[in-house]
Hints:
The protein is of the alpha/beta class. It has one domain (about 5-150): Mannitol-specific EII, Chain A (3-Layer(aba) Sandwich), CATH 3.40.930. The protein is about 45% helix and about 25% strand. It contains six helices and six strands; from the N terminus they run αβααβββββααα. Strands 1, 2, 3, 4, 5 and 6 form a six-stranded mixed β-sheet that branches. The longest helix has 16 residues, at about 20-35.
Amino acid sequence: MSTLATLLRPQAIELDLAVADKAGLFAHLARQAAPLTGVAETAILGSLQERESAGSTGLGMGVAIPHGRIKGLKGGSVLFSRLSPPIGFESPDGKPVSLVFTLLVPANAEDLHLQLLGELAQHLGSSSFRDRLAKAADAAAVMGVFATSEA
Length: 151
């Protein structure tokens, strides 16, 4: 099983989330992640904003991967959000984003950070993977998509 599948938990999955824009999404992600990680919401939000200021984490194909390294985080954490409606994200293809994968790792966990980004990039190359996530009925179905996908 991939590291992504191992780190993703049902309580870290939100389907049909409505947010107005990227700032609203990041604030929501920080609120969601804080109790799951034991790290302050402000630290998570700051990390996501800092990374995003270096360049958009929108990849194209309706996908974004906001991510950050966070001081005090004990292990990696993966969140998945499906947005409805999609939002603008300054993606290279100009298309709005509906599938959001948030990766949070400890500040000194460069290898884990790169491993998670690499696994996700391999998954996202599959239109079938993206389609199954877009159609997943609930958190269990999302977990199943990750568990049955080869990275």
